[in-house]
Amino acid sequence: MSQRMEDFPNETLLHVFSFLPLKSLINGRTISQEWRRLIPLADINPTRQALLDFYLTLIDSPIFLQTRPWVLANLEPFNRQQYIDDLIDQHPYVPEAFRVWILEWPAKAVIGCNWPGLPNVHAGRDIADNVHRIEGNNSLAPLPPTICALPFMNYTAAAHFIPALFIFHGQQSTVWLMLDERESLRDKVYTLVEGGNSLFDEKGDSDWDIIDDNWVEYQKRTWGRIELWAKWRADKNLPIMRLEDMPQNTSFGERPMFTKSFRRGELQAHTWRERDEPNVRLDLYFAENDVHLPDLGERIEY
């Protein structure tokens, strides 16, 4: 008679658990009370463990279910491995936490309306309560993904481009995942509160920029902000918006200046592959008194 996995010795189970992907670890906790007790004791990959801990925090939140309707109504499948392959085809390094999140995170549990399988439509103030819907654009949605070239250390002799993935475009802010491998930038997520597309140095582009050490920390901070908005609405006796009460999506008005690399509602910088083209390198400034004009390309009015 074949032996059930539940009957394996604890040492064997712990060894097996250490190799399981995130979804299997989540499902495994529902098998039995013993598995629920054992899974946290397994030697799980630290990134996967951090994502599991965050998932458990989410589903225990009293507002989690209220943030689901728009996500569930708009989710579309996408090829997760192809998404990562497309990034690696443009640049060899993808932060581990982001890679595991793309490959293994339960789509029905995405937060902040930020996921490749959700639409890239602008949520304005009339349809965004920053709990159920987040104000801004889901910049992970355009497929295939495009890595951007952000000017770094501009107005110094060391000015150069660094690779980054455009994550989210808020009302004023832009969010970027760094793909540069140097220790000072590696894995970090920058929220540029003035909506920039460059970094002056590792501290960002202004004194107000927010830097998360990795993708999991960014996700945790995003959820913390959603909880604060939920508390604010509760204090003001304002309900969380229901899906059926949301107006239609509205268009997003961006500055009407683009180069050939810019695509409306998608990119806010040149592509990484174009970084060596002469017109693109005009976005770099090599001296404090450098006042040359960048190549703005064709002006698009809409």
Give the overall shape.
globular
The overall average pLDDT, rounded, is 86
Which range best describes the helical content: under 10%, 10-25%, 25-40%, 40-55%, 55-70% or over 70%? 25-40%
Major β-sheet annotation: 7 strands, antiparallel
Domain count: the total is 1
Q: What is the β-strand count?
A: 7
Q: How would you classify the helix and strand content by structural class?
A: alpha+beta
Q: State Rg.
A: 21 Å
H-E string:
HHHHHHHEEEEEEHEH
* Low-pLDDT residue intervals, each spanning 5 or more residues: 251-265
In DSSP terms (H or I, runs of 4 or more residues), the helix count works out at 9
Strand content: 5-15%
Distance between the termini: 70 Å
Concise synopsis of the structure shown:
Residues 2-39 form the F-box domain. With 302 residues, this protein is α+β, with helices and mostly antiparallel strands. 29% of the residues lie in helices and 11% in strands.
Overview of the structural elements:
The chain is of the alpha+beta class and about 300 residues long. The chain has one domain (about 45-280). The protein has 9 helices and 7 strands; from the N terminus they run H-H-H-H-H-H-H-E-E-E-E-E-E-H-E-H. It has helices at about 10-15, 20-30, 35-40, 45-60, 70-75, 80-90, 95-105, 215-235, 280, and strands at about 135-140, 145-150, 160-170, 175-180, 190, 210, 270. Strands 1, 2, 3, 4, 5, 6 and 7 form a 7-stranded antiparallel beta sheet that branches. Strand 2 and strand 3 form a beta hairpin. Helix 4 (about 45-60) runs parallel beside helix 8. The radius of gyration is 21 Å and the shape is globular.
